[in-house]
Write a structure and sequence with these properties.
It holds the Pfam family EamA. This is DMT family transporter. The chain is an all-alpha fold. The protein is about 80% helix and about 0% strand. α1 runs parallel beside α12, α3 crosses α5 and α6 runs antiparallel to α12. The protein is globular and about 50 Å long. The C terminus is likely disordered.
Length: about 290
């Protein structure tokens, strides 16, 4: 695969993922647990087909081979999925996705604390800048009564960071089998927890179809494209390319629904995105693009 092809695949994945906010806005009224349940119902078989294709029919073996790290990563994805949906329901899409962008920095801190991974000085600087952006948005969320949405978004970012650390600790080269486990665990958790919280999984047909579309159409397809494309793109460049998801998600809801972001969200989001870009650029050590 050529480098340019990989870039197109990763950008397409980001564009697909940026549609989550718009999709959630079109739900009739399904709760977060119902959404993640039906999303996972479609996600798991779609990703299993992808894993089977890549492993020549050894999908189940690949999933089970993730072991304890895969199980931990899958459990972390419950928080990432639930927090992501709830935050979009409880606050603006812009506020939610900008806070999701904190995930790389939370990953860096957890990797340093739990795995002893070295963190570059420029990354520490980017983390400090990101913290300022988070403070601006969370402070505004508190003033506007949207603190729960902000905390859910940060919980989602932390869950994804935990997922990433689990993959690294297990020396896994492929994240997709762990995402499959995350989908299975999410379905089980939703089936157990939703009734205890007075939330039903049997929502309207519209919401079920839309949630399943998010699982198979946006998440699974995007994951497949990202996984294939990332094979020929350095990690720092992947981070830069992934910014398209964060930048486009607020654009879709503004174009189609007229949803706007506050000044505090724009300022805090700009600081966070700037920190991500700064960290990615500083990580580019003049690497030559790889072509296969």
């Amino acid at each position: 695969m050529r480098y340019g092809t990989g870039v197109v695949l990763v950008l397409t994945a980001g564009l697909l993922w940026s549609g989550f906010g718009l999709a959630v806005r079109h739900l009739d009224g399904a709760g977060a647990w119902a959404v993640v349940f039906w999303r996972s119902v479609a996600l798991v078989p779609a990703l299993m087909l992808f894993v089977s294709w890549r492993s020549k029919g050894q999908a189940m073996r690949r999933v089970l081979a993730t072991g304890r790290s895969g199980a931990i990563g899958g459990l972390c994805l419950i928080a990432a999925s639930l927090g992501g949906i709830y935050s979009i329901q409880a606050t603006t899409v812009a506020n939610a996705v900008f806070l999701f962008a904190a995930a790389p920095f939370l990953t860096a801190v957890l990797g340093w604390a739990l795995l002893g991974e070295r963190v570059r000085r420029s990354t520490w600087g980017a983390i400090a800048l990101a913290a300022v952006g988070i403070y601006v948005m969370v402070r505004e969320g508190l003033a506007l009564g949207a603190m729960d949405g902000n905390l859910a978004a940060l919980g989602s970012a932390l869950g994804f960071a935990g997922f990433t650390i689990a993959i690294r600790s297990g020396r896994q080269g492929d994240m997709v089998p762990t995402v499959v486990l995350g989908g299975v665990f999410t379905m089980i958790a939703a089936a157990l927890v939703a009734p205890m919280m007075g939330e039903t999984l049997w929502v309207s047909t519209h919401d079920i179809v839309l949630s399943m579309g998010m699982g198979a159409g946006l998440l699974a397809t995007g994951m497949a494209l990202y996984t294939v494309g990332s094979r020929v793109i350095p990690a720092a460049e992947l981070t830069l390319l992934s910014i398209v998801e964060v930048l486009m998600a607020p654009v879709w809801v503004w174009l189609f629904l007229g949803e706007t972001a506050s000044e505090g969200t724009i300022l805090g989001g700009a600081l966070l995105v700037g920190a991500v870009i700064w960290n990615a650029i500083s990580g580019m050590r003049g690497r030559v693009p790889l072509t296969l």
